Amino acid sequence: MTSAGRRSSRPTRSLDARLRPSAKILPEHTRAHNRSLVLQQLFHSGTSSRAAIARATGLTRVTISDLVSVLMAEGLVEELGIIAESRVGKPATRIGMRTESFRVVAIDLVGGLTLRGAVLTLSGAFEHRAEVEIDGRSGDELLELVERMCRSLIASATAPVIGVGVGCPGVVSPTGVVSQSPKVGWEDFALADVLAARLGLPVHVGNDANVATLGEFTFGGAPENGMMTVVLSDGVGAGIMVDGVLVDGAGHAAGEIGHVTVVDAGGALCSCGRHGCLETVVSVPSLRAALAGLPPDEAAQVLSRTGQLLGALLAPVVSSLNLVEVRFVGPHDLFDGPLREAALDTVRRRTMPAISDQVTIEMATMGADVLLAGATALVLSAELGIS
Questions:
Q1: Is 24 exposed, middle or buried (0-12, 13-18, 19+ CB in 10 A)?
Q2: Residues near 80 by beta carbon (within 8 Å), at least 6 away in sequence
Q3: Beta-carbon contacts of residue 93 (< 8 Å; ≥ 6 apart)
Q4: At a CB cut-off of 8 Å and minimum separation 6, what does 11 contact?
Q5: pLDDT-derived band of residue 9, with 50, 70 and 90 as boundaries?
Q6: Burial letters for 167-196: b for 16+ Cβ neighbours within 10 Å, e otherwise?
Q7: How far apart are CA 194 and CA 147, in angstroms?
Q8: Nearest 5 degrees, angle CA 173-CA 175-CA 178?
Q9: Do domains 31-97 and 102-213+370-384 have the same CATH topology?
Q10: Alpha helix ranges (H) inside the chain
Q11: Over 80: is that where the pLDDT of 88 sits?
Q12: Is it the case that residue 7 has pLDDT exceeding 80?
């Protein structure tokens, strides 16, 4: 990659929350926080009056009035008429967020063979979709393909685009630097900065499993207190959310369970160069190969044994973090059935009742669109403070 693709110090909204503040709170931080509170309320609760927003957020009515005025000037919210009430006094005006007046471009790099993209409204409704075969491209060639798809999707949008979100496999920093992603041929590559410079729009890049977790959290009704999303495709990765905060890790590699060794002897060679990683057993290509030509009963046994292996790996994570819900992202014919049931049974058998009585394992609510929805949520979080 050229020097333009190296690390950048570009400031970005962090998705983490810190127990020990490391810097003083500046007035602009307070304003941004309050702005986010108002947009969150309108995004999730629908239309409301200024007084109701003040009650819900705990902010003063004067603060709410000032914020609403600014947001109206930005075109993000609008007045929708008088609220019919029986109270005496000046009638309240209904305020709503203009979620259908802006667009997000979302890119899913996870599929392996196919690059998927879409234009979505701020509420997560799909306006336009696109797919193109990757044909083995990686590195600079893949970057060019992503850029062309982004330009095409931006041109197709029927409303202003506020940003581009990308779900990418591998280790990705909060600033959109792809530290390690052998599958796409990028290392220490500032993908967000490079695309932003080329497209002239804000670009936000996240690890695929973290992006899927954001998609399930923002649009799929996932709980904020203890959930994990396991993305099962060409590779295997997990996104973890605890108390409404994505777990990132010191090296931004939290959830990289695909390269944990689960077969001690005779394991297959993994893309990371080691043998016996979870990815060599549970990834979609590995499972398809293991099931090829088997009759249904034998296939079910293979899926069940694989589910037990996955459950044994998930159990200590679920127990350590007291997770209540695990969601699988992957083909239903492989993961929704004997494999999922065996994984859940194994997790429950290997954890104490206080954990096992609560935990569930289900398929992702958003299905195959979870990465595109999550890339949209990534932009909403970074640009508007909404999640």
A1: exposed
A2: 47, 93, 94, 95, 96
A3: 49, 50, 79, 80, 81, 82, 83
A4: none
A5: very low
A6: bbbbbbbbbbbbbbbebbbbbebbbbbbbb
A7: 10
A8: 45
A9: no
A10: 27-45, 50-57, 61-73, 139-156, 191-199, 208-219, 279-282, 284-291, 296-321, 332-335, 338-349, 353-356, 370-384
A11: no
A12: no
The amino acid occupying position 140 is D
Residues 6+ apart with CB under 8 A from 112: 134, 183, 233, 234
Assigned token pair, 28: 């602009």
Strand order in the sheet with 236-242: 245-246, 236-242, 227-232, 325-329, 360-363
At residue 25, the pLDDT reads: 63
For domain 102-213+370-384, the CATH architecture is: 2-Layer Sandwich (3.30)
Q: Whole-model pTM? A: 0.87
Secondary structure (H, E, C), 61-128: HHHHHHHHHHHHHCCCEEEEEECCCCCCCCCCEEEEECCCCCEEEEEECCCCCEEEEEEEECCCCEEE
Q: Residue 117 pairs with which residues in a beta bridge?
A: 107, 130
Chosen CATH of 222-364 out of 3.90.1150.10, 3.40.50.12780, 3.40.50.300, 3.30.420.40: 3.30.420.40
Question: Is the distance from CB of 276 to CB of 270 less than 8 angstroms?
Answer: yes
Q: Is 44 left (phi over 0), alpha (psi -120 to 50) or beta?
A: alpha
Residue 202 is predicted with a pLDDT of: 97
- Residue closest to 354 by CA, chosen among 309, 314, 312, 324: 324
The region, left, alpha or beta by phi > 0 then psi within -120 to 50, assigned to residue 112 is left
